[in-house]
Amino acid sequence: MRRVNVSELSEGIANGSRAAIARAITLVESTKPSHREQAHELLQLIAPRTGAAFRVGISGVPGAGKSTFINAMGVKLIDERHHRVAVLAVDPSSSRTGGSILGDRTRMADLAAKDEAFIRPSPSGGHLGGVARATRESMLVLEASGYDVILVETVGVGQSEVAVAGMVDTFLMLQVARTGDQLQGIKRGILELADVIAITKADGDTEQAARVAARELSIAMKLITSENEKRRAPVLTCSSYTGAGLDELWDAVTKHRTELEEAGTLRTRRLAQQEDWLWNMVRDELMEALRTSPEVRDTAAWVEARLADESLSALEGAQEILATFAGAIDTFPWAAPQRR
């Protein structure tokens, strides 16, 4: 990717240029140091136009129909509620090759055809939580371009698939009936994070099973959240095929957002997310510095050789690497920040 004119790119984003948006997201996803500098400059320029969108995270068990649901809901939001909808669909990356299929657009054909929609599949890159490293920055780019609903689809439910809840206003969890024990596929931590729960595929022969599953999950939520005054996530049913229940589900999602605004906790939630984002970026930069430092690489090679012949323990090796990093830290461009 050649060096971009950040000012022109910012103007293109403000004007809604799809090419500029795509290029900007590619820029913020890049891990090259020169691209990261340009990305930081771009984010500063677009910052005044960000923050107004409704951010919704969508996760669920494999087979719950997340992409199909987003396709149906996105079309409804555009056609009937006149929103501009952006989708960040995070695909799992191969732990061996780092590759990713990025096939979500094929499952969102109707939504992809809409001028008011923008779909961006991104590889997770092995990032904890199944959310691409630059998802937060990508959301800012889309907000600056005028998209007022941003849907973040994660790779699925698991112990590490909760990162999305730390960057959105409302966390929607999808579940499907007839998967055995309704709680087996869902970790308690996910249930506690969910703001709204939907049982999908509530049509045809599975409609009754979906309603039964919804009742069972509602009871489970009461057991998990025993405090009467604490909000419990509503459990609804819907069908992406017939459209049944989609309006009620979106009303529940927007009601949660309204409750946050009225209670004054939306701002608190976003400030907490900013703090989380801060430390994630610090951690990412430190890891990148460790990975690219010639001094650290030399020490690491020496430590690994000593580990192989058992002349050094892992603890001692870690101390050697950290000591080398501490000695080399003054060489990094961010080592002496200017405080105001």
TrEMBL record:
Organism: Tessaracoccus bendigoensis DSM 12906
InterPro entries in alphabetical order: GTPase_ArgK (IPR005129), P-loop_NTPase (IPR027417)
GO cellular component, one term: cytoplasm
Keyword Metal-binding: no
Keyword ATP-binding: no
Protein name, entry field: LAO/AO transport system kinase
Signal peptide residues on this chain, from the entry's feature table: none
GO molecular function, one term: kinase activity
Pfam families (UniProt xref): MeaB
Protein family membership: Belongs to the SIMIBI class G3E GTPase family. ArgK/MeaB subfamily.
Keywords from the UniProt entry: Kinase, Transferase
